[in-house]
Amino acid sequence: QFLLEESDLGQNRAKASQRTLAELNPRVVVEAHTGELSEAFLASFQVVVLTESPLEEQLCIGDFCHAQDICFIVADTKGLAGQLFCDFGERFVVDDPAEGDPVSAAVEHISQGNPGVVTYMGTENSHGHLFRDGDLVTFSGVQGMTELNDQKPIPVHVLDAFRLEISDTSSFSPFRCGGLVSQVQQPQECSHVSPSRPHGAATRAGLLLCHAGPQESTYPVPGAVLAEAPADAERVLELARSLGAQQGPLDEDIVRAFATVSAGDLCPVAAVVGALAAQEVLK
């Protein structure tokens, strides 16, 4: 834990970390809360992140946050494995679903017709197919058929690598030259699920395996060779089989690999998962 020193041993981690955290940015208020995570306390936040939390608590708090439209994140590590779960509610808007800059192309010709056909020039790296069916586009700098420059975003139908069908252009002025056709990225609404909803077999069984109590399994010592601890590894594998029995087959090699390292904590893994979780908070 990067914020703690040897002198902090025996103290509450939240209180011991609060002073150093607060010094990182004086514009941010950092408070340590050591009481119960009650619904009244949680309701005051836009985002709740849990780490090192038992599964029962994750399910309970996750369901509450989902019902209250509070973004909910679980971040945890088990040895070399990491867990990151995000529930951003029923109506989470992704402003940039394509995760990239909108594409654009120089216009070569636009026909008068219903529908009109746009022929555009490719680029050295495009190899055609810049656009997809249903994409929304706008036009700028078109000479002759200037009516297109003032149009709102228009849906397109892709004919081939360099031709698009657009709306009715039969009443527009004849195309002369120039112009740019550009993709308009539309926000996309996503619906997330709470942690208590069913997930894939490997994911669900893996989460349950992460949180299995010591009375259900004994994980091998971190770094132990399987041949040296076959009984421990087999117990973990049997637990995984029982957890995933109703949801499909498991990759037993992954379960064995997980079992050999899951009892350890590694700062680099925690740093990576923590950074990913922080990015999700910013979203």
TrEMBL record:
InterPro entries: E1_FCCH, E1_FCCH_sf, Ubiquitin-activating_enz. Pathway: Protein modification; protein ubiquitination. The keyword Glycosyltransferase does not apply. SUPFAM superfamilies: Activating enzymes of the ubiquitin-like proteins (SSF69572). Residues 114-184 form the Ubiquitin-activating enzyme E1 FCCH domain. Keywords: Ligase. GO terms for molecular function: ubiquitin-like modifier activating enzyme activity. Pfam families: E1_FCCH. Belongs to the ubiquitin-activating E1 family. This is UBA7 enzyme. It comes from Nesospiza acunhae. The lineage of its organism: Eukaryota, Metazoa, Chordata, Craniata, Vertebrata. The gene is Uba7.
